[in-house]
Each structure stands twice: as C-alpha cells, then as structure tokens.
Design brief:
The chain is α/β, with parallel strands linked by helices and about 180 residues long. The protein has helices at about 5, 25-35, 65-70, 125-145, 165-170, 175-185; strands spanning about 15-20, 40-45, 55, 60, 80-85, 90, 100, 105-110. Bound molecules: zinc ion (ZN).
Length: about 180
C-alpha cells in the first residue's frame, strides 16, 4: 500500500523555490514526490530568500526565520509547504543545518548547499545530488506528517549531520516508523 493510502496523506505539497536555484532539479523532485506519495504537488514561482533571515557574521540564513515566513503563506487546510534553497542554513546551536521543519506547523525547508559538497567520486554527480535532496525532502516532510527521528541509519527519518550519512540512508520509512504511524492513525 502506498504511504498515501496507508496514512490518508491526501493533501497537497507546495514546493517553493527560494533564491537562485536549479529549477530542473526542483521539477524532478516534485514529480518524484507525486509518485512517492500519490499526492498533488505544486511548484510555485520562485521567491526571494527573506533577507531578515541572513546573518552577516555567519554568512548563512537562519532556517527558523525562513520557516516562519513559509508559515505565513496562504494554503488550504492540510497543505504542506516545502521551501528549497541553494544557500547555507543554520540554527544558533549548530554550525549548519541541511534542513528544518516546524512539526507543529505546515512548513519545511531543505538546503542544497551541504548536499552539493564532498563525496562525489562514487557516482554520477547529478544523480547523487538528486538522491540526497529527495531523502532530505522526505525526511523534513516526514516531520510534518508526524514521523519522528529514527535510530535506524538506513531509514529516511534517521537524522543526518553530513553527506556520508545521507548517502548511507535510503528513501524509505522503516518498518518501525511505519508501525508507529499506524498506531497514531
Ligand atoms: Zn525509521
């Protein structure tokens, strides 16, 4: 059974490209999300990354500020908003973050910045970057649908701090995560 049928994830995902970003990758991600969740995915016209999120000292964007801006966007009930940025994100307690989500809200954000770096010798660069972006998008959307952090390093809900860990995990929610969700729903 598809995750959509299993969890009744009938609501749309709205993808918001932010700043300068590769639109062909965004469109590919959107169509992958359509088939993964059997859910409608809209790609909005690009918006600027909110300048108030930029920290001049760090040269990075504060992900929480970006999320709070995405939260303000109009949306139908149940819709989830996924922002994608090419710039580096941070939260004050960490040097950087690959992405973030507001588990009590409707929005998530993923940065390509760290996913583009390192470890390319193994595979075709474009293919590898896409699989990293997909995993992190699924991970952040997972929080919005009620999935929690998972200890299984192969599970898409495993929390990753670097690209090696991202490459090691898969694109699937593990049986434990699926079971936990089933109990909740
Ligand atoms: Zn899991």
């Amino acid at each position: 059974m598809s995750p959509q049928r299993r969890f009744g994830l009938r609501n749309k995902i709205v993808v918001v490209p932010m700043g300068e970003i590769d639109y062909s990758l965004i469109n590919k991600l959107a169509s992958q999300l359509v088939s993964y969740f059997s859910v409608g995915v809209d790609v909005l016209q690009g918006v600027k990354i909110p300048h108030e999120a930029f920290n001049h000292q760090r040269g990075q964007y504060y992900s929480t500020v970006i999320l709070s801006k995405l939260e303000l966007m109009k949306s139908a009930p149940g819709e989830k908003i996924l922002g994608l940025v090419d710039d580096d994100l941070y939260i004050p307690s960490q040097n950087f973050v690959i992405g973030g989500a507001d588990p009590h809200g409707k929005s998530a954000v993923v940065s390509l910045f760290r996913l583009k770096r390192e470890n390319y010798e193994m595979m075709d660069e474009e293919k590898l970057l896409f699989s990293r972006v997909l995993k992190e998008a699924l991970h952040q959307l997972g929080y919005l649908w009620g999935f929690k952090d998972c200890r299984n390093p192969k599970c898409v809900m495993y929390v990753t701090d670097n690209v090696m860990e991202v490459d090691r995990k898969g694109t699937k929610f593990c049986d434990n995560c699926l079971r936990r969700m089933k109990v909740q729903h």
